[in-house]
Amino acid sequence: MILPINIYSDDILRQKAKPLKGIDSTIEALIASMFESMRNAEGIGLAAPQVGHSVRLLVLDLSCIDNYANEKPMVVINPHILAVSGCNVMEEGCLSIPGVNGDVERPAVISLKYRDEHFLERTREFSGMLARALQHEIDHLDGTLFVDRMEKRSRKKIQKELTDIASGIIDAEYPVVPFFHKASQG
Fold first, then answer.
1. What's the helix, strand, coil split of the chain in %, to 5?
2. Computed from CA positions of residues 10, 62, 105, 84, in that sequence, does the dihedral angle turn out positive or negative?
3. Cα–Cα nearest to 44, from 135, 106, 141, 123
4. What residues make up the catalytic site (predicted)?
5. 140 marked as part of a ligand binding site
6. 94 annotated among ligand-binding-site residues
7. Which of 94, 184, 85 is nearest to 137 (CA)?
């Protein structure tokens, strides 16, 4: 089932997601829907908060990128970054912030402890686009968006687009859940 994506300024995107204690049929269905929703939106990663579930779960599929064509789709549950090294700057975008891109500096290599789709604990080192995509999605689990990591000068350049999205001006080729600020009642 294709789930609508929660959009920038929705409160759920700013909350720290809760750890999963296991997998049941509901979580298995959520994982399947997340993959379907991510692919429908032509994304390479999706975190559960982006589809309205505040749990520490994300999916990745980089196989649409030439250098990662043989990389299997991943389910990552309760991730914990153990170590980082190196550094690089790359342009990022986000399904929750349609049409907005910006340069973000992140560690180039990460060592990650997580549980897979069978809830088995894994520890693995990631580099390149895998490391970047994992860090981007893990940020979602911590209530952080890529625009929060941009330099102030760069963020000012996209502020109008962010304001437009927050006010409901959204141009997305996939279903979204727009979030509108409620007028303060005084």
1. 30, 30, 40
2. positive
3. 135
4. 137
5. yes
6. yes
7. 94
Q: Which of 121, 136, 22 is nearest to 90 (CA)?
A: 136
Terminal C-alpha separation, the chain = 41
Q: How far apart are CA 166 and CA 97, in angstroms?
A: 9
Are residues 119 and 28 in contact, defined by beta-carbon separation less than 8 angstroms? no
H or E element at residue 106: strand 97-106
Distance of CA 127 to the CA centre of its chain: 17
Catalytically active residues are: 137
| Domain range list for the chain | 5-177
Q: Please give the CATH topology (third level) of the domain spanning 5-177.
A: Peptide Deformylase (3.90.45)
- Which residue type sits at 149? R
Token pair belonging to 155 = 């963020």
Please compute, for residue 114, the number of CA atoms within 13 A of its CA located in the half-sphere on the CB side: 22
According to the annotation, is 136 in a ligand binding site? yes
Instruction: Calculate mean pLDDT across residues 104-113.
Output: 98
In terms of residues, how long is the chain? 186
pLDDT mean over 110-130: 97
Q: Tokens for 87?
A: 């550094």
Residue whose structure tokens are 């894994």: 122
**What is the per-residue pLDDT across 143-182, written as a single tens digit (0 to 9) for each?**
999 999 999 999 999 999 999 998 888 889 999 986 654 4
